[in-house]
Every structure is written in structure tokens, then in C-alpha cells.
Design brief:
The chain is an all-alpha fold. The chain is 68% helix and 2% strand. Helix 2 packs across helix 10, helix 7 runs antiparallel to helix 12 and helix 12 packs across helix 13. The longest helix has 40 residues.
Length: 522
């Protein structure tokens, strides 16, 4: 591999400019603009999956009517995180994302640990979303056609389709994800207008639900007027569910080498996605808790009928057709979201392989489409493996529907919690990396607010969220054994990556020099 170093105003002295490397397969440069990057990343956040999957649990088992305040708080914190993250993206353009940023700021060993952690997190997220797809697919086909198809067939079908579509030009993925994103946003807007536009006794709109000072108010255990029980909740769970809903927006830097003007487009896409999602999430979650005649009715629905938390009031306020459309779009959304994570994972395989950390074959791009097709195929195999492992080894409690338990509680929830914990660790680490990077490489551009205060706030916030997640694992997952292993698995992934980095340092110095340092300065 070429050892020509590139020192430019955009990178560190040890950077390698991929445009000057003749023996590295390239991605499709200048393939997508700002809209394309937004389609690829915001779809990863999956608005309808975030709302239908996270709001009921966050409200019922967390902070009740104040779940919109949790989304507002998350908007503020993640916007602050994006300030430093966007500044870093304006300096380092690489398909490696977290991997490259952390390598530049904190060193190659920690960078490699970040690369492996990112790879595992996004690989798990793809399988997780296909669990959601399979859960709704099984229920919908049984409802619509009277056909009882086991969930695993839906999940594996999604893996195959994502693999086929990701094989082609990134423009095709962008277009497909864009259509899915527009459709799900439209149906959620219909829901919002249905709630806020009625003004009837069927809804209960309270502006106090947006008060961030009430975000840590627990749902209190009590009985409703008709004698039904409402279980107690842990407010911090609602906060965590809100932050979970943004996972995906941070993938924008992974498309830097395929965008037309990465140093402008990537930072702009970060701001657009986090702020637009924040406004939309806050509004829609507020509509959701307002769609019931009182808070007790809302809590009962969230705790006992979460699958219809949105569709039931939508059918009443707008019509059954709208509710049916929403059920279809949760399928397209969860598939599109899984495909977005598939694309990012394939690019992590490509990034790590072209730097010599993984086998070089994973760094091949398609001769015509310039897609990282080998990494895509390998990720499909891993996604299928995660799905089959849950099918074979996840025990189903007695008198429990195995389709719902294995697909939704198991594959979707368990893997999403593990993946989210890893992403929060990465976001905290990259915040620290930003501070060191600017001080070491661009002191002239270091700014007390943009590259110091904002990353410090983000570092503290994300670290606290990891602590909250670990502490509340029993609340989120109950007594399921896998949940208790999540912190151990996450720590093991990070430690393995770190040890691997030190091994490469002494065993393969040429490879070590390239860790996280191949960038696009063109």
C-alpha cells in the first residue's frame, strides 16, 4: 500500500490522502448531495420506529406525560454534541466516522477500539431493526391475510433485500431510503394534526408536558378509577428512550467520501438532522401523550397495549384507513432503518480493511457501482447469524407468544439496548477526541465554545447516560439474562479493540500507522 503521507490544512501530519493512493479501491465520489446524506442518516434514526417503538415504553415505564420533555432535553444535548462533532467533520473527511475521529484525537489504539465498537454496534442495529420488522410483519400478515408466518422468515427476507439493494450504487439506497422517510414523516404529521386539530374531549393537551424541569418525574404506581393497576416507572428510562431515538443521525461522516462537498455537507447534515428530528420528535411525542382523554388512560394504553398506542387514537381521530397505512409504514420504516445501518456497517468493514486492520478483500468496491459490496455481503452474513442465534438460543417464557418475544423483546430490544450503549460510549469518547485534536493539530481554529465547552458538556452528558443505562438495566429488560450481560459484552468489545490496537502497534507498524488515517482531502 502506498506510504505517501498527506499534510494539508484539513488533516493531521500523519494522514494518507486516499485520492493519491493507487492501490486502494475507491467509493463513488461526489455521488450524493446534502439531501442524499440526510436520507441515508435520518432514515437510520427511523422516525416512525422511534415513535411507535420508544414513546409508549418511555411514557409507560418512565416519566409518563413528560416524555415530550425528555425529547426536548435530548434535542438540546445532542445539538450541543453536534457543535464539536460538526467542527471535527469539517476537518477530517473519512468513511471511518467515529473510528477516524477518535484515532486523530486520542491515538490509534483507542481509535481501533472505536472502530471495532462502531462495527459491532451498527451490525447489531441492522439485526435489531429486522426484529421490529419481523414482529410487525408477523402480526400484520396474520391480521390481514390470516396467515401465520414465523417471524424468522420476515427477518431473513429483510436481510436478503437489504443486501441486494446495497450492492448497487449508493444513489439507489439514498432514493429508496428517501421515499421511506418521506412516507413515514407524512403519516406522523397526519397523526399530529389529528390530535392537535380536533380540540375534542377525546384528547388532553397539556403544555406542561414540555417542561424539561419535570423530566425526572417518575410514573407513580396507582389504580385508575375503574380499578385497573398502573405500575410505577423510572423516569430516567424515559430519558434514555428519547436519546435512543436519535441513533443513526451521527452516521453522516461515514458518507463523507461519497458526498459532493463533504466539509460543508456533512456538518450541515448533522445540524439539520438533529434539530429537525428534535422538533419533530418533541411535537409527535407530545401529540401521542395528548391523544387520550386523560393521563391515566394514556398510561394504561402505554403499559398494556403499546403496539396500538399510536394506531388506536389515529383510527379514532382520523380514521381506520390512516391507522392501516401507519401499520404498513412501520414495516417500510424498520426495513429502511435496518438498511441504513447495513450501509454504514459495510463502510466500516471497508474502512478498516483498506487500512490493513481487517482482511484486504473487505476493502474491494464494485467495478461499476463503486459500492463496498464485499463488506455488504459479509455484514449480511453477520445480520443473519444474529437473527438465527436469537431464534435458536433465546428461551421463550411459558404462555408467551414466541413470535413477539423473540422478535420484539429479544432481537429488537436486547440488541438495540446493547448497540445504543456502545454508541453513547463512542459519542462520549469522540467528544474528548475533539478537544485534543484541535489543540494538537489546529490550535488556530480551536474555540472556547465550539471545540471545548460543547464537547465537555457532551462528554459529561453521554457518560451520565451510559451510567443511567447500566444502572437501570433491570427496569428496561426485567429478568432476561441477556440484559444482565449487556454491560459485560459492551466492555469486552471495547477492551478487545484496545488490546488489538496495542498488538498491531508492535506486530505491524505499517498497518498501525494507517489506523484511522486514510482520509479524503480532495
Amino acid at each position: 500500500m502506498s506510504q505517501t503521507l498527506s499534510k494539508t490544512s484539513a488533516g493531521a501530519p500523519e494522514d494518507y490522502d486516499v485520492n493519491k493512493m493507487k492501490d486502494v479501491d475507491k467509493l463513488h465520489s461526489r455521488a450524493i448531495g446534502l439531501v442524499g446524506v440526510l436520507f441515508l442518516t435520518v432514515t437510520g434514526a427511523a422516525p416512525i420506529s422511534a415513535m411507535l417503538g420508544n414513546v409508549p415504553f418511555g411514557a409507560g415505564s418512565g416519566n409518563g406525560q413528560y416524555i415530550p420533555a425528555a425529547f426536548l432535553l435530548a434535542t438540546i444535548v445532542l445539538t450541543i454534541f453536534s457543535v464539536g462533532y460538526a467542527a471535527m467533520a469539517g476537518k477530517v473527511s473519512s468513511v471511518g466516522g467515529f473510528y477516524s475521529f477518535i484515532s486523530h484525537g486520542l491515538g490509534r489504539e483507542i481509535g481501533l477500539a472505536a472502530g471495532l465498537t462502531s462495527l459491532v454496534a451498527y451490525s447489531l442495529f441492522e439485526a435489531s431493526l429486522y426484529g421490529l420488522f419481523a414482529s410487525f410483519g408477523h402480526d400484520d400478515f396474520k391480521l390481514w391475510f390470516g396467515v401465520d408466518i414465523p417471524w424468522v422468515y420476515f427477518a431473513l427476507f429483510a436481510v436478503v433485500m437489504a443486501s441486494i439493494l446495497s450492492y448497487f450504487d449508493v444513489k439507489i439506497s439514498s432514493a429508496i431510503l428517501g421515499i421511506a422517510l418521506i412516507a413515514e414523516v407524512l403519516i406522523l404529521l397526519v397523526f399530529d394534526f389529528g390530535v392537535f386539530g380536533k380540540g375534542s374531549s377525546a384528547v388532553h393537551i397539556d403544555g406542561n408536558a414540555l417542561n424539561v424541569f419535570n423530566v425526572l418525574t417518575d410514573v407513580a404506581a396507582h389504580k385508575t378509577a375503574d380499578g385497573k393497576d398502573i405500575a410505577a416507572g423510572a423516569a430516567i428510562v424515559g430519558v434514555f428512550m428519547a436519546f435512543w431515538s436519535w441513533v443513526g443521525f451521527e452516521m453522516a461522516p461515514n458518507y463523507a467520501e461519497e458526498s459532493r462537498d463533504p466539509k460543508r455537507i456533512v456538518p450541515l447534515s448533522l445540524y439539520c438532522s438533529v434539530i429537525a428530528l428534535g422538533v419533530f420528535y418533541t411535537l409527535t411525542s407530545w401529540a401521542a401523550v395528548s391523544a387520550y382523554p386523560n393521563n391515566d388512560a394514556m398510561l394504561l394504553a402505554a403499559q398494556s397495549d403499546s403496539g396500538n398506542f399510536f394506531t388506536a387514537p389515529l383510527a379514532t381521530l382520523v380514521g381506520p384507513t390512516a391507522a392501516s397505512i401507519m401499520r404498513v409504514l412501520i414495516l417500510t420504516s424498520s426495513f429502511a432503518c435496518g438498511m441504513a445501518f447495513h450501509n454504514t456497517t459495510a463502510r466500516y468493514f471497508y474502512s478498516l480493511a483498506r487500512e490493513g486492520v481487517l482482511p484486504s478483500g473487505l476493502a474491494k468496491t464494485h467495478e461499476t457501482f463503486k459500492s463496498p459490496y464485499v463488506g455488504s455481503i459479509v455484514q449480511s452474513a453477520f445480520a443473519a447469524l444474529w437473527i438465527v442465534l436469537f431464534l435458536v438460543f433465546l428461551p421463550v417464557p411459558k404462555d408467551t407468544d414466541y413470535n413477539n418475544f423473540q422478535a420484539y423483546v429479544g432481537l429488537y430490544t436486547m440488541l438495540a439496548v446493547l448497540g445504543t450503549m456502545l454508541i453513547l460510549v463512542l459519542q462520549a469518547t469522540v467528544s474528548l477526541a475533539i478537544i485534543f485534536y484541535f489543540q494538537a493539530n489546529h490550535p488556530e481554529d480551536a474555540h472556547w465554545f465550539q471545540t471545548l465547552l460543547c464537547p465537555i458538556i457532551a462528554l459529561i452528558s453521554q457518560t451520565f447516560l451510559v451510567y443511567v443505562l447500566v444502572k437501570n438495566i433491570p427496569v428496561i429488560g426485567g429478568t432476561a439474562t441477556f440484559f444482565t450481560w449487556i454491560p459485560v459484552i459492551g466492555l469486552a468489545v471495547i477492551v478487545i479493540g484496545l488490546v488489538w490496537g496495542f498488538i498491531v502497534r508492535f506486530a505491524a507498524p505499517d498497518t498501525y500507522a494507517r489506523i484511522g488515517r486514510i482520509v479524503n482531502d480532495g
